[in-house]
Input
Amino acid sequence: MIRFSHLRVLRLASAAALGALLTLTGCSGAKVDNNESDSGSSPNATSATHTAPRSVPQGMGSDEKDGVFPRTVTHFEGKTVLKAAPKKVVVISTGQADALLTLGIVPVGSTRGDGADLIPSYLKTAFAKDAKQIASVADVGSRFEPSLEAIANIRPDLILMNTAGKDAKGLYKSLSALAPTVATQGTGLYWKQDFLLLADAVGKTQQAQRFLDGFHSDAAALGKQLQKPATVSFLRMNGDRLRVFGVPSFTGSIAEDAGLQRPESQRFGKTSEDISNEQLDRADADWLFYGVQGGKAKATALLKAPLWPTLQAVLNKTAVAVDDDVFYLNTGPTAARSVLSELQEHLNTN
Output
């Protein structure tokens, strides 16, 4: 029987606490959803040793120390002067809400995806101490067409957007008329560089770097702890759509950080590839981590697919249902910590 393994409250809180501890101790085109699951494009910037860039592109950022203002931040749509540390920040993607919360800042406004919570439940759990502020976050519309009126009413002193899957130049122009705006790149592959660039805008670049250093160290340690090599597969179901995820993706980058192997069917150079029910064998591996939008109630179609019970991971009880928000929709540092915790919990039991 397949276990539907939701991320536990304790493990989520522990992951967030660990990230905070690491921080403290170190003191355009058609509409495509800007979460990585709807992106099939190849990466346009990679590292020689890591598929996901670990630093901001050359010439971007401000080079200022944490807490130093004013600062001029160079980003994907230009340069923005920030005269003081932002106190009221609006985000145009939930991945940016994740990054802000990881840095100890609760946004005052956020967009939402179709059918998604304004602030995902995993963030509410991980940052339960901020529950009152999180509950008061204002809804500013969709990530593709945010409500300029709603944002203006908030009177933010910083707006964070990304350039993925939208008329970035047009949106940037509109948002910049309301408040200083900084644009990151977007999509799961670039979550680390975007985290650092966002952190620069709020004066916490070094804090974000310490978080990433700790994350990379723990990911590498996971790979060394494993008793034997294992392949890992990532599968997502959204409505009738099935996708497997490659190395240049959010979850793929985390697996790479841990030195985990991918099945041959998922070593392609795109974020994801669509498959049919008749191609479910492409999702097979020693461990299969699958997410279904809508959770267990929506998973029946996948679990009753003719090829599902024939997969080796299903037969070996190593097919693990995961939180779709964490693995496939919200590409931020706290989500990354939770993915790493999930991988460690299951892979270390084998």
User: Anything to note?
Assistant: The chain has a mean pLDDT of 88. The radius of gyration is 19 Å.
